[in-house]
């Protein structure tokens, strides 16, 4: 049952992204930013954590979880260090993911050769 729940919730995030692309006619960059901001807003309202408990990977894999991670990191560090924690918390919790994305993108660029569009 947990696989079905994760699939359905992750699928709803994907459907929302596709609607933003096709119906609202947002660019892919705007769609990504909108989903990240949605995750951040849900985290700020305290709604993303219950969604993670309910859907597991269905809520932690989509790009909206990046917004959740930013807010969660900032809030945790604000409790520990005060207002300075807003900046340090966002970078501390997301640095591993960003570093991995940069590293793997670089490795992919070394292995694959781009082609000209025809």
From TrEMBL:
Pfam families: SpoVAC_SpoVAEB (PF03862). Coiled coil: none annotated. The chain crosses the membrane at residues 27-47, 83-112. The keyword Transmembrane applies. Keywords: Membrane, Transmembrane, Transmembrane helix. InterPro entries: Spore_V_AE (IPR014204), SpoVA (IPR005562). This is Stage V sporulation protein AE.
């Amino acid at each position: 049952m947990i696989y079905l729940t994760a699939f359905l919730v992750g699928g709803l995030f994907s459907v929302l992204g596709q609607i933003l692309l096709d119906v609202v006619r947002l660019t892919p960059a705007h769609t990504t930013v909108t989903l990240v901001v949605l995750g951040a807003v849900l985290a700020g309202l305290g709604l993303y954590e219950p969604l993670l408990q309910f859907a597991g990977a269905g809520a932690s894999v989509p790009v909206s979880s990046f917004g959740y991670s930013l807010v969660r990191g900032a809030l945790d560090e604000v409790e520990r260090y005060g207002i300075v924690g807003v900046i340090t918390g966002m970078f501390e919790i997301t640095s591993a993911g960003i570093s991995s994305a940069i590293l793997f993108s670089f490795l992919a660029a070394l292995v694959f050769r781009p082609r000209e569009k025809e």
